Amino acid sequence: MKITIAEVGRYVGQEVTIGTWLYNKRSSGKIQFLQLRDGTGFIQGVMVKKEVPPEVWEAAKELTQESSLYVTGVVREDERAPSGYELSVTDIDVIQIAENYPITPKEHGTEFLMDHRHLWIRSKRQHALLTIRHHIIQAIHDFFNKENFVKVDPPILTPTSAEGTTSLFHTKYFDEDAYLSQSGQLYMEAAAMAFGKVYSFGPTFRAEKSKTRRHLIEFWMVEPEMAFVDHEENLQIQERFVTHIVQTVLKNCRQELAVLERDTTLLEKVEAPFPRITYDQAIQLLQDKGHDIKWGEDFGAPDETAIAEEFDKPVFITRYPTEIKAFYMKPDPDRPEVVLCADLIAPEGYGEIIGGSQRIDDPVLLEQRFEQHQLSREAYQWYLDLRQYGTVPHSGFGLGLERTVAWITGTKHVRETIPFPRLLNRLYP
Amino acid sequence: MKITIAEVGRYVGQEVTIGTWLYNKRSSGKIQFLQLRDGTGFIQGVMVKKEVPPEVWEAAKELTQESSLYVTGVVREDERAPSGYELSVTDIDVIQIAENYPITPKEHGTEFLMDHRHLWIRSKRQHALLTIRHHIIQAIHDFFNKENFVKVDPPILTPTSAEGTTSLFHTKYFDEDAYLSQSGQLYMEAAAMAFGKVYSFGPTFRAEKSKTRRHLIEFWMVEPEMAFVDHEENLQIQERFVTHIVQTVLKNCRQELAVLERDTTLLEKVEAPFPRITYDQAIQLLQDKGHDIKWGEDFGAPDETAIAEEFDKPVFITRYPTEIKAFYMKPDPDRPEVVLCADLIAPEGYGEIIGGSQRIDDPVLLEQRFEQHQLSREAYQWYLDLRQYGTVPHSGFGLGLERTVAWITGTKHVRETIPFPRLLNRLYP
Ligand SMILES: [Mg+2]
Ligand SMILES: [Mg+2]
């Protein structure tokens, strides 16, 4: 019976064959302990010298780290094993002896590991991280599916950008110029007018020469957009959404969180509703804490961390100054110098994971914004059309996948939260 | 109670309010029939003159196509309605009267409609098409989730391409050159060695000056890759996969298929296993049919259609000549002039929807291929590493989302199967 390590629980007491790689091994002279992985999990194979033919024993002695082999054995329950099972090995069939695998159990520098990212992802910690990333991706799709959102894929190649082209990647599109999208939001607004509630989930590109632990050049973003949804409902959906993601990971990824030694105390508390403070209150709070910041300025990472410290859940900062936010955000009718927006700040210093707002639905105000921001009416005629032909109140937000993975897994630098990171000086592998 | 059209079935006999757009209307003088849409569905609102205040009756008379309004009414079951329900309107609250909506119920040319794609997606047919696209996307995620695949996102920005850069979009990546990925497959092979069974699902770019009805410049592709899976198992997974997609659409999208007037006779028959013919047999078949084709040549669209005509299910064409297929495909050990590959051809002239193969696992043969194809060892050292450190038999395939949507929805041209198509002369909206 050819199975995977993830399936061993269904085969206790039975002989099975698994295609594997040797992760590590140790030997007592009479017993060889083979740490095996097959991508679906890790298991220990126990080979007792007197219970296998001599050539099998000798073959096992030749195995090096990352050698590939089919292993045959009987599945045993074992409470001490992290997976709960081990394998009493009866036979092995070596596919390849790996020579000089570069990533040894000893310590390596980050640049070296990143140069070997194609192999590094086999390591236990990276495997756990990217498995949790996968579960977060699935939780995102599940949430929007259950809430009857339609997935709409906005284009990556776009003729221009409403927020300037300085941090965009440029390419020739036959005879035209095109740029890689930094956000599909404007397209998603068009889609919301056609499908009501929509979401996108795809790669996004930012050609910024920044080297912080929160920035990737290429990253994945979720962008929901909803017709007939106002600022308040928008926040409620975000609360449910983030709660769903965190609770799904806590339910499905206990082993992976343990591998990462993630303290889940604060994660367990992530349940809607989330605390909210206004931008005004946040400024006051920071000033009280001695930060050098004035009303009208945006928050830096240390500011966000200082605000997050005051709460043990993600916190919404609402109603930022109109001046420092995007042109499409709807001003508060009672106080037009601030907009009906919110950023969601993760606890524990992981920073902003969501930015969202109600959008301007008034065609006259949107035209004014186009003039103020010197946006091309020609390039965005289609966007202006949305306010001419049945404008409605609508809202949306964007969640950065890698920052969310970094927070939930407790990973300092986002570069480990994506399989093949693209950084300022890294385009390989 | 504020609800959506999709939810009306739960509110029969109750008064509800729905945010909507007017799709169309007609009047008998005493009754106005308002065709309403809200993105989640379509419903008819029936307003009887003597049952509403005069100002409500007059307001309804002002409504133009794509005007936005909140409509309040009592939900009634109605067997004649496509949705099964209609609304006895008691009140309306107009948000905006739309003036001169450009897409009228009369016929428009394709270029005009594509220029107004941001509005065209509101039309019934486009709404149905893209709703089915959404259900196909969800079916794809569901399938791989149930089969315990891990979603891995390969990078879009890559330093070079193993298959040449002539049809790639180029961009400057700070001081380096980068290209938009045409396939994440090689990265997915690295991922399969770390996670066993993986899939990617993301946008792909092909800078080809082709204008056929099967080509998009930017399209979405699913690329699964599986360790310890051979050619035969690869085909079985593809059969299960495509069956799952088609049967899910037949189950969940009856209304949308009806809007599209899709004849589902052949779709109903899509159940694994699928017929298989070898490339040799396909050449013989085409020659018998009078096609001008010789062994060693690739099939064109008319050839694929002629082959598909012989079957009422998707058909696998297996074992193509090594010469005309990608460098990484594993030769048939019994007959190295052909490779262990298969293309899956959809019925009814929709062409190739899947290409897949077992991959070369022998490091020596792969090195030979690199020399024959003059590939850069330096750029692909990481890929060669995969055969040095525990190489294993492995297979994978790629499915084109838009071609699959075109087939299942019975749409001739792929340009309508993606929300915002990118074509040779189209980068707007
Ligand atoms: Mg911010
Ligand atoms: Mg082909």
Report on the structure:
Chains A, B: This is Asparagine--tRNA ligase. Chains A, B: Its main location: cytoplasm. Chains A, B: InterPro entries: Aa-tRNA-synt_II (IPR004364), aa-tRNA-synth_II (IPR006195), aa-tRNA-synth_II/BPL/LPL (IPR045864), Asn-tRNA-ligase (IPR004522), Asp/Asn-tRNA-synth_IIb (IPR002312), NA-bd_OB-fold (IPR012340), NA-bd_OB_tRNA (IPR004365). The structure is a homodimer of 429-residue chains. The first copy, chain A, has 429 residues and is an alpha+beta fold. Chain A folds into two domains: 2-96, Nucleic acid-binding proteins (OB fold (Dihydrolipoamide Acetyltransferase, E2P), Beta Barrel), CATH 2.40.50.140; 117-417, BirA Bifunctional Protein, domain 2 (2-Layer Sandwich). The first copy, chain A, is built from 13 helices and 19 strands. The first copy, chain A, has an eight-stranded mixed sheet with strand order 7-11-12-19-18-17-14-13. In chain A, helix 4 packs across helix 6 and helix 4 crosses helix 13 (401-409). Chains A and B meet through strand 2, helix 3, helix 4, strand 7 and strand 8 of A and strand 1, helix 3, helix 4, strand 6 and strand 7 of B. Bound molecules: magnesium ion (MG) (2 copies). Residues 343, 352 of chain B line the site of one magnesium ion.
